[in-house]
Design goal:
Strand content: 5-15%
Number of strands: 5
Distance between the termini: 23 Å
Order of helices and strands: EHEHEHHHEHEH
Number of domains: 2
Number of helices: 7
Shape: globular
Helix content: 40-55%
Radius of gyration: 17 Å
Structural class: alpha/beta
């Protein structure tokens, strides 16, 4: 079983580099330090018995649907979760909302949108473009996807779309 180091800071990047381990960054909820952490990891990497060179996995959110409108609607559950965190409220993922701007202020939604900035959201074409952008921007060797979607069937469909646009066979 391969050992990875998962983190959301430059400290974890530095530790993974020092140990010569593959590094996964939790940018699906903490993207602020993503690029700096990748730079620290790559620049300080020491080859080990595990790896000869750095290997980066980037966590990204994916919310895929048949239309951009539907994907934005499904994304509102994750936006609500992070907006609630900005209020100091934690809880379970809530149902999506078409009026999220009426439920939260600009500061709370800004916090949510920053937390979700490493995301590919939309119809199949938009999701493919979003994933390609994340990979190109970060130089990631792999992406690991998370989808905070309230409805289980919609979440499964989102993963199916992501797999299809990435050239993978959905299970």
């Amino acid at each position: 079983v391969p050992l990875w180091l998962l983190g959301s800071s430059t400290y974890s990047a530095e530790l993974a580099a020092h140990l010569g381990l593959p590094f996964a960054f939790a940018s699906h909820f903490a993207p602020r330090m993503l690029m700096r952490a990748i730079d620290v990891y790559r620049s300080r990497f020491k080859p080990s018995e595990v790896l000869d060179e750095p290997y980066v996995m980037v966590g990204a959110n994916v919310v895929a649907a048949d239309t951009n409108e539907e994907a934005e609607y499904l994304l509102s559950s994750a936006r609500k979760r992070f907006a609630n965190m900005a209020r100091g409220v934690r809880g379970q993922l809530e149902a999506p909302s078409r009026d999220i701007e009426k439920e939260f202020g600009p500061g709370e939604l800004g916090y949510a949108d920053e937390a979700l900035s490493c995301s590919a959201v939309g119809d199949p074409a938009a999701v493919r473009a979003g994933l390609e952008h994340i990979r190109a921007e970060t130089g990631a060797d792999e992406l690991i996807l998370a989808g905070q979607i309230f409805d289980h069937q919609a979440r499964l469909r989102s993963y199916e779309i992501a797999a299809e646009v990435w050239g993978l066979k959905a299970a």
